[in-house]
Each structure stands twice: as structure tokens, then as C-alpha cells.
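Hello K.,

You asked for the raw outputs rather than the summary table, so here they are, unedited. I folded two proteins back to back in the same session to keep the settings identical. This is the first:
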Amino acid sequence: LYGAETAESRFFAQGMEGHEEFLGWLKKKLSSGNVKSAWIFDPFIDADSVTRMIRSLTDTGVKMNIVTDANAPSKNQQDRIGLLRNVCGQLGELMGSRLAFYAFQASKCLLHDRILLLFHQSYIPAVYNMSNSLDNMGMHTPSVVCRLSRDSAKACAEYYLDLYQRQQEEGKVEVLWEMETGRSSLVQIPPEE
């Protein structure tokens, strides 16, 4: 049918095998040759999952931008961002300039959904909604990844990238890792006069 879209989704069973299948699926998507950059919005990502992910994705050649939320509920609320900062500092060299990691520092939690944006040559990225955080994809509970339709993908990408831009302009994005700085800092954009 003209204009019909085929749904793309993937189920990952519970357990380490399911988590490894997810990492393999993600690596395959990133290594497809036509993905230039990726944005991951995950409010609950933790240091262990970043370690597993970076180590399994080092040879994809894709620029990875990861955004989390410092105010997201967490079992390790006090130390989660500090641990992420440390892990990024230790493992960031593996990815070099292909890794950037940020944390929203707004007065309230701004993220809930886990979103993966894969940018190709086209304007509209492939957008996937993940049922669980990257630290939990298949590991502790079964998980599903679903690709959004073209219209939804466009709206979702615009929303999340605009949210990131607004937070950056308000000075509410902490840089956990960027190769350009090689250290963490709070991004401060001076207001236009």
C-alpha cells in the first residue's frame, strides 16, 4: 500500500542474554553504515550500563550523544550523576570525540520516556521508544523497542532536541563528558543582549 509503514519492533527476554541481545541489536543499528549520529534520552541510565554500552559500541564510528536527568528517581539518587561523571572520564577516551554525555539539571525531572534517535542522511531520524532504561533493557525485566512512524518520529525528535536546546540556553545542562573538554562542567550560555 502506498504510504503504509511496516512496524519495526524487537522483544528482549529477561536476563543477561536478553541484555546482550539488546546491545547486539543496538550495535547492528549503529553499524548499518548510514547512521551518522545518535541521541539517547534516558533519565534512569546508570554507570554500569554506560560501561557495558561503551565497551560494546566502541567500533561503530557513530557520534553518541547521551542525555540523562539528574532529578530522575533512582535507587542511588545521591551518587548516580557522580558515578556517571567518573565512568565517562574513565571510558570516554575509548570513544574519543564520538561520545558526549549530558545531564539535565532543572528544578524538576524533565524526562520519563527512553528515546533513541538515529540520524541518517535524511532530515527525519529513525526514532525508537525503549520500554526500559538502558541499564535494564532485558536484564531485570523483559523489554521492547519500537520504531515510531515517520510523523511521530519527526515530532518526537523535534520535541527532545528542542528540550535539550532550551535547557542548554538556560544553563541547566551539565556536561558529564565531551572530548573537547575532557572534563565535566555546567554549560553556561550567556543571554543575548
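The second followed immediately with the same parameters:
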Amino acid sequence: FPSHDTSSCIKIDGRTGDIIANAYPNVTNICYYLSGDYHLPFLSGFAGENLVYPVSIDSDFYNDIWVSYTHPVCGFLAKYNTYGNLLCVVPFKPLHSPAEIIIDRDKNVWVTAYNLAASGYTLSGRNDFVYKFNSRGDLLSGYPLSGFKFIHNATTDMFQNLWVVQDKDTITRIDAIDGSTSNYIAGCIVTGK
């Protein structure tokens, strides 16, 4: 990387063992130029100006790289091939800020997203999302799921169910087949839908 670049996401290439570090790519065709939009109330206090930050990275079955980029009014998911060529871009709605990416063995791409339109001051006011896409970047039926409170890290289990951390002490299991959720606290089942 040139001396002015910094890396915010890394992934180890499954075929070569190389470390892939993602700096700020050339997103000229994707970037939303903000200009006068900083007068919008929901951007009050946001110091990122027109920067779009890479947040999370994962590689799929074909060793393509998926990266989530975030900005309050310009969040998107990008898919690159092994050589760094952009394959597809999945835009998110303004104020839906993509975060964690998990790709399961069934080649589905799970993405957690913060809802910046919801109150950030209390957990009860949060309404974050979980998106699920196929390997082409198409949103799957029934998604996004909502109602998560300050969604955090995510992982999949051996059945390809997604597990996310949310709220103060809640771990939520999202069924890979039907999208139903079960919440756990300290190893106990709390709710199930």
C-alpha cells in the first residue's frame, strides 16, 4: 500500500494463504457525493464527511471477496474476484449501515446492518437489521429481518444458522431455513418465534 493508505479489513486467502488487506478502493462510481446533505439532522455530529469506510470482509466458496462499506447515506456491499476486479455492488438504503459479513457454506451472504434512523441513545430504541443475499447479491425472500437492538458480531454454526450478539446480553439464533429467531441469555432460552 502507498504510505497514505490504511487497511481496515483483512482476510486470509483460502487458496494461497496470502493476507488480503482492504484499503479504500476507487469507489468513484459508487460513492454518494454529499455536498449539501450535511445539513440533514440525522448527520449531526458525523465526522466522516464524504468518506466511505470498509467495515467487514469475508471470502466465499469461489474465493471472491465480499466487503461491506459504510457511510450514513451511502452503505453498500461489494464483491471482488481474486484479482480485485469489482463483480457486483449491492446498495443499502440511506441510514442502513452494513457492518458484519458472514458467508455460510450454502454460499449465502449474511450482513448485519445498523439502523441509523433509530434512536441511538437507548437500546430499546434500536431497530437494526440482518440481511441475507445469495451468491449473486440478490436479497433473499423474507429479508431483511428487523428488531435487533444494537447488533454486534455474528457467526454461523454447522447447520448454517446465523448467531448474532445484540442488546446488552442477548445472543440470537436465526434459523437458516425459515429465518425464525431464538434469543438466549447466559445459556437459557428466553424467547423463540
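The CA atoms of residues 161 and 175 lie 5 Å apart.

Happy to rerun anything if the numbers look odd on your end.

Regards,
P.
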